[in-house]
């Protein structure tokens, strides 16, 4: 019996010795030592961000506003201070945080001085009145680019990521140890690097204010001669922090209408006019009776009103359909189609990865042997569709003396020291689309249209402008009346000549009033700010 007892006692001591040796061996390994050390620290991420998107003058378009964030080691005193500062707004959350004991963050309206509270000013990615949301785009739930420049330049913007982190000493239950030292790591300065776009914040703000009554539509402003996009507005707009709500809106605010294709209506008559001037096929006079037969179908001028005897200048100023139908019939469809290609129509444009404008649609040449189809094409109807950006590119070519330059949206990369590193655009076309003589004549005719023609309602005070209007059928009816798309496309000049091109689209409306007002107010604002 004694022998058995001694045996059991020896076995127990052996097991204890083995367990002790194993514990020492395991705890001595580097990875377990590191893991044990990590358990005494609690990492609290206060803020994360990525590279900044700048305008053409390196003014930040993202991260330009800030917010206060409190990093809190929960004690009764600290929670009490927050309760007072927030006027009980987060009472339940603060009570739960105090019970939990782990450090937490809370957005507050002003700094709080307390030993257990650190307050940080951190950038807000998108402001409440964010400029150019359709250009900038937005992020997905993982913080990656989902649309716009955020998507197109995701790699560059992700390269300049930064974060603000506070490390706390905690006990075995993860509760912050009162009075223990804490450590802060802040790399947010790295987010100064990023991307610059061609948008000018001053002009963008003017465009957004001018388009407030536009409803559904788009506004594009380019600078002559290189066709940099200085403003781009799509209406209605959206907030980047309310993407779910915007995605369910029947007015489709997430759609970038400036990059979408529509029938251009009479603005396209400039293409037919340019072709006639280049081909030497200008009709010296045309007797407009208010309608014309093409392929057995009667085409009417606006409201069926006769314009009398007109030449090319008067036909553009009064937007005479009959003149351009007759001109296209005399030339045939191929020259007009070729000029349309030369002016950037029918081709999708890429601004960056995943960021495209629609190509629109040009009819094929075989269809234009039909007089009805050719008639529609000559004044911007039928199968033809174009984007507001493309129309601004066309006007930019006329304004720059016939030299076509593809629209540009990305200026370049920005280093951490905020030095601009220019980048060649993905689409970078530059060539002569028409002679200088043709462009000069069209400029004069457009100035006439702004003074005495269909563009008078949109003509700005204080500067010289040239304007071509367009009205396009949609086939959509409301209360028995067809809704129309209204266009105002033109340029404004200083003493040296045309400086900025403006395109305004009013989608699905009964009258053009708000489109004309948008063009006029925007043109006057740009003239006062940039041409004075």
Automatic annotation (TrEMBL):
Protein name, UniProt field: Penicillin-binding protein transpeptidase domain-containing protein
Pfam family, one: Transpeptidase
Superkingdom to which the source organism belongs: Bacteria
Limits of the Penicillin-binding protein transpeptidase domain: 217-522
Species classification: Bacteria, Bacillati, Bacillota, Clostridia, Eubacteriales
InterPro entries: Beta-lactam/transpept, Beta-lactam/transpept-like, PBP_dimer_sf, PCN-bd_Tpept
């Amino acid at each position: 019996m004694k022998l058995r007892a001694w045996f059991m006692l020896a076995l127990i001591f052996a097991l204890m010795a083995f367990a002790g040796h194993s514990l020492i061996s395991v705890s001595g390994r580097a990875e377990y030592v590191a893991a044990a050390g990590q358990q005494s620290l609690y990492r609290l991420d206060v803020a994360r961000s990525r590279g900044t998107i700048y305008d053409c003058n390196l003014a930040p378009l993202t991260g330009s506003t800030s917010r206060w964030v409190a990093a809190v080691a929960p004690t009764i005193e600290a929670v009490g201070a927050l309760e007072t500062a927030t006027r009980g707004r987060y009472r339940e959350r603060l009570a739960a945080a105090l019970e939990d004991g782990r450090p937490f963050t809370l957005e507050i309206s002003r700094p709080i001085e307390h030993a257990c509270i650190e307050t940080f000013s951190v950038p807000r990615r998108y402001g409440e009145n964010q400029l150019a949301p359709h250009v900038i785009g937005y992020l997905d739930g993982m913080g990656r680019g989902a649309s716009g420049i955020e998507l197109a330049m995701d790699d560059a913007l992700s390269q300049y990521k930064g974060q603000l982190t506070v490390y706390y000493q905690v006990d075995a239950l993860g509760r912050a140890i009162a009075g223990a030292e804490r450590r802060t790591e802040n790399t947010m300065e790295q987010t100064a690097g990023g991307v610059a776009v061609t948008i000018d914040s001053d002009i963008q703000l003017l465009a957004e204010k001018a388009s407030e009554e536009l409803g559904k539509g788009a506004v594009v402003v380019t600078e002559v001669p290189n066709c940099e996009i200085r403003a781009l507005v799509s209406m209605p707009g959206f907030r980047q922090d309310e993407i779910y709500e915007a995605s369910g809106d029947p007015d489709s605010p997430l759609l970038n209408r400036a990059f979408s294709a529509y029938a251009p209506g009479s603005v396209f008559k400039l293409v037919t006019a340019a072709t006639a001037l280049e081909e030497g096929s200008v009709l010296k006079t045309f007797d407009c009776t208010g309608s014309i037969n093409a392929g057995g179908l009667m085409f009417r001028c606006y409201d069926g009103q006769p314009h009398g005897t007109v030449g090319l200048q008067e036909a553009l100023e009064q937007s005479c359909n009959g003149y351009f139908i007759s001109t296209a019939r005399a030339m045939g469809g191929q020259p007009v189609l070729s000029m349309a290609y030369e002016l950037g129509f029918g081709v999708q444009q890429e601004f960056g990865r995943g960021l495209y404008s629609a190509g629109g649609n040009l009819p094929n040449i075989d269809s234009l042997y039909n007089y009805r189809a050719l008639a529609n094409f000559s004044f911007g109807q039928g199968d033809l569709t174009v984007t507001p950006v493309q129309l601004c590119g066309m006007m930019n070519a006329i304004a720059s003396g016939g030299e076509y330059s593809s629209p540009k949206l990305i200026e370049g990369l920005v280093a951490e020291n905020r030095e601009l590193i220019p980048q060649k655009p993905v689409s970078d076309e530059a060539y002569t689309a028409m002679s200088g003589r043709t462009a000069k004549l069209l400029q004069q005719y457009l100035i006439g249209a702004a003074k005495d023609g269909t563009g008078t309602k949109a003509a700005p005070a204080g500067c010289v402008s040239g304007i071509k209007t367009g009205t396009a059928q949609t086939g959509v009816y409301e209360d028995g009346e067809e809704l129309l798309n209204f266009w105002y496309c033109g340029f404004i000049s200083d003493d040296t000549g045309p400086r900025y091109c403006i395109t305004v689209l009013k989608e699905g409306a009964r009258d053009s009033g708000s489109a004309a007002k948008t063009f006029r107010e925007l043109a006057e604002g740009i003239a006062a700010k940039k041409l004075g």
